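Researcher: Please translate sequence to structure tokens.
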Amino acid sequence: MNLSLTQDQAMIQEMAQKFAQAELAPVAQMQDQIGDRALFLANLKQLAELGFMGLNVDSQYGGSEAGTVVFSLALTEIAKGCASTAVTMSVTNMVGEVIQAVASDAQKQQYLPKLCSGEYAAGGFCLTESGAGSDPSSMKTKAVLAGDHWILNGAKQFITSAEFAGIFVVWAVTDPSAPRGKGISCFLVEADAPGLSISPAEDKMGQKASVTNEVVFNDCRIPKGCLMGELNQGFKVAVTELAGGRIGVGSLALGIGLAAIDYARDYVSQRQQFGQKIADFQGVQWMLADAYTALEASRLLLMNAADKKDRALPFSKEASMAKLFTSEKVNKVCYTALQLMGGVGYIKEYPLERFARDARITSIYEGTSEIQRVIIARELLREIK
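Model: Translation complete:
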């Protein structure tokens, strides 16, 4: 098996690396502590201009058409510089992919170029509700057809980049009498739709520069043509797209973990205790060895899932494995890195405490580690039936 990158893949990875280190990393600490909305949006625009907001979108719609492997590689590099920027990039790419997968030709022509070009700073993926997180089939948001319009009522919670989004992909119940998960449809809702409002940003533990909001629909009126895909068939669209999103979250987590342990490795290679560099102690060396081994295993799991997706092979189990393993290992790696730094790792002057906070959510959003285990076990048992 040839695991080396193609020339194009390596070039895009290098482009992402250079942008992250030149534009994102120097301001990531400031964005976490203070936040500069204008600068954050400017960096998102630059990412779009570089082609990173539509990495798996066809070129006819303004996308890069680079594939999932490149998406994973690029997202890891962006996350090394700033996890908040990376999560916005990840979700916007996911929104672009779901539109490309199920929207009509007219809908694709209307919205994909705006996402890919940065005319829309971000896209919003509106699935989660306060009572429908790990079980999105129990959602309560409803859409009722009234003449030439759909009327949406309900609320979506924890929506990444809602304040920045130009377009939302929204799931709502359209047939309340259907079994759970069977009467749900998918809609495209523009940010300025009447009856749509966005609540103030949540005050989060990590990834603080990326806004996370509740999106409320109060008799929100959208044209009949905003239905995306088939009526009452939207839930399976969400399930499919979440599998791809897990590759994104795993790749983001990998970037955070690499940034954390790279920083700690540099630190222990310079700081001295007991008359020698900390890195010369065998115990420290083993901590580094375990951390980098876990991250390399994570990378290979992610590449396997991404490659299967690019080749149109079943990849749900592999994506869940990659997301589960990577997010859990990265949380441990960040604490290992902080431990290697000692007391200074706990101080906000250094980035280790930020890396640890940014990493924590990766084992929760896009499906918790517990849900990933459910998916993996279900697929394993299905294989022997």
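Researcher: Any highlights?
Model: The CA atoms of residues 321 and 359 lie 17 Å apart.
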